[in-house]
Amino acid sequence: IAQCLVGSEMCIRDRYMDKKVYDIIIIGAGTAGLSSAIYGRRAGKNVLVLEGKSYGGQIIVSPEVENYPGIKHTSGFEFATRLFEQAKSLDTEILMDEAVNIEVDGSYKKVITKGSEFISKAVIIASGVGRRKLHVENEDRFTGAGVSYCATCDGMFYKGMDIIVAGGGNTALEDAKYLSEICKTVYLVHRRDTFRAEASLIKEVEAKDNIKILLKHNVISLSGGDVLESVKIADTVNGKVSDIEVQGLFVAVGQEPQRDVYENVVKTDENGYIVAGEDCRTNVEGIYAAGDCRTKEVRQLITAAADGAVAAVMACKKM
Ligand code: NAP
Fold first, then answer.
1. What is the pTM of this model?
2. For residue 233, with 0-12 CB atoms within 10 Å meaning exposed, 13-18 middle and 19 or more buried, which class applies?
3. Torsion of Cα atoms, 219 then 220 then 226 then 230, to 10°
4. Residue 280 among the catalytic residues
5. Atom of ligand 1 nearest to the CA of 67
6. Ligand 1 geometric centre to CA of 260 (Å)
7. Active site (annotated) includes residue 150
8. CA dist 150 to 155, 185, 255, 313, Å?
9. pLDDT tier at 62, thresholds 50, 70, 90
């Protein structure tokens, strides 16, 4: 019997002969990941999607989606659910199991999850981005007890109460607008003297009587008993510190990539985004990056969907 050469591709292939090998494993069931799954399945590949939280990614909490070509108006939940159902209707295997690491063994990839491990010929990383933290005193202590990173998920818990929204981008101003319909007073605290958000949104927020805008202020610490009771803010010009009594703090200070699963495997930039171009190829053969976790200029729903398609087509080309 011929012996395989240790380390050779033939020898590696022998190792996986009795194991289930997927064509493509997709990490993340957001817009990019599910779009990849649809393209992969339609190309006849066996596809496994791994998701650690719930399907849909970031868009699922957007109350309104009005910038996806061909769909004049929908909600993020409806959009994500339709995408999920479309992928399922193509018999995509979707598992709620968080991927924690990827190992490369020649042309085979092993994806290790919290509960198991899976093998494939190609991996598409579509792990998206998560909300950035403020990194101030007691932020972790009050997370879930006054501190939230999702206005549409948690807003109703603060009905009739006073809250702070921290941040100055589109998300912060959208959150402030949304929460002003539910809460008594919304303090919008932003570190600079101008907002980064779109002009039309700024106008809408400025017109709301119960949104109090506090520019040139930073949140510096949080206090309370079992739940949040008060937030310390500091004036960025004169350093003056003041307390605002609030029951909620909604943090909307941007996003950062969910990098834990891939940072030891593929090349990333200084902010943790996977270095990959428009063809979604990473520096590792057979591993692709799709959606917001990839280095790119424009992070939108449509660019995530487009990346999903490109990554799947590129992966299929190699099989
Ligand atoms: P963003 O545009 O990056 O804005 C983050 C904001 O948080 C900035 O104002 C930033 O301040 C502030 N910030 C960052 N780190 C901070 C810190 N440590 N302490 C205090 N403040 C801090 O993030 P985003 O609003 O989440 O939006 C992300 C992307 O999604 C953007 O491209 C946005 O346009 C897009 N988006 C679009 C829509 C829409 O089209 N309807 C809705 C939501 C989001 P500085 O300004 O001083 O940097």
1. 0.81
2. buried
3. -60
4. no
5. 40
6. 22
7. yes
8. 8, 18, 12, 34
9. confident
